[in-house]
Design a protein that fits this description.
The complex is a heterodimer. Chain A is α+β, with helices and mostly antiparallel strands. Chain A is 17% helix and 38% strand. In chain A, strands 1, 2, 3, 4 and 5 form a five-stranded antiparallel sheet that branches. The radius of gyration of chain A is 24 Å and the shape is elongated. Helices cover 22% and strands 43% of the residues of chain B. Chain B has three helices and five strands, in the order H-E-H-H-E-E-E-E. In chain B, strand 2 and strand 3 form a beta hairpin. Classes of the chains: A alpha+beta, B alpha+beta. Chains A and B meet through strand 1, helix 2, strand 2 and strand 3 of A and strand 2, strand 3, strand 4 and strand 5 of B. Strand 1 of chain A pairs parallel with strand 4 of chain B.
């Protein structure tokens, strides 16, 4: 087989492997890392200092005599593979046979302040990382 | 020759932008920063805050304080919709303003953070 045809076949096979493939991603706010909070000194740093560095919290809640500031960020990844596209080679009508997966990683940071908004403590929520390509739903 | 070059150039540009999607969504009203300078701690009243920013999106009550929350979300979404392969990104950022009042409705504190200038049309469906 001449090299020209081999290359063409390779391109066609590559295209076929991508047929019906979709990858989507939604990012909400930039991630906050533990090292971003290394400046915090409990009992000294105020919520204003924190907000200057990492932005304002998504939510503030009053709990007994304290305020809890909740920072949230998330990454949602979704991918799908429509196997019905392969029928387009032989048929004008392509059935839908889609395998799809979605992973939502919501992450949070809680900062507890006293009623003068001085930081008392903080904690990150546990994270659960999902892979980008999750075509297999079972 | 010049006409042929122009047609080829146009065709090339059309091919490059074929399947491109650019979309934008917003929630709420942008928080006007120039209004923030008019709020003075220990002096300004609730009425002034409502006049400047309107009714709050959320009210939090506790610790002898009332907190007005205002938020604004901005999202940009680039995508590439091809015949056989689609990729799409949605990038969202938020601005939040909190105004703390005492029992008399006087401003005690203001917390404001702006992230929306960071939002961009970067297409990055993979990576961290």
């Amino acid at each position: 087989m001449p090299a020209r045809y081999a290359r063409l076949l390779l391109v066609v096979m590559l295209c076929m492997s991508l047929w019906g493939c979709a990858v989507r991603r939604v990012d909400f706010n930039a991630p906050i890392m533990p090292e971003d909070l290394s400046f915090i000194r409990a009992g000294e740093t105020t919520l204003h200092h924190v907000v200057d560095r990492i932005g304002a919290p998504e939510e503030i809640t009053a709990v007994s005599d304290q305020f809890v500031a909740e920072f949230k960020w998330s990454t949602t990844r979704s991918s799908s593979l429509n196997l019905g596209y392969l029928f387009r080679i032989v048929s004008p009508v392509a059935p839908t046979m889609t395998l799809s997966g979605t992973g939502i990683n919501i992450q949070r940071l809680l900062i507890i302040c006293d009623d003068r908004l001085i930081v008392r403590s903080y904690a990150f929520g546990l994270t659960d990382e999902h892979a980008l390509f999750e075509f297999w739903p079972f | 020759m010049r006409f042929r070059t122009s047609v080829l150039l146009l065709l090339g540009v059309c091919l490059l932008i074929n399947g491109c999607v650019l979309s934008r969504g917003r929630v709420g009203n942008p928080i006007q920063e120039e209004h923030l300078s008019q709020i003075e701690k220990g002096i300004s009243k609730k009425e002034l805050v409502v006049t400047l920013f309107g009714a709050p999106d959320r009210i939090i009550v506790g610790n002898d304080k009332e907190i007005f929350q205002y938020y604004y979300y901005d999202g940009k979404s680039p995508g590439l919709i091809l015949l056989v392969f689609n990729i799409l990104s949605v990038n969202l950022r938020s601005d939040n303003l909190y105004v703390f009042f005492d029992r008399q409705g006087i401003v005690q504190d203001v917390i404001y953070g702006k992230r929306t200038p960071e939002v961009d049309f970067t297409l990055r469906p993979w990576g961290k």
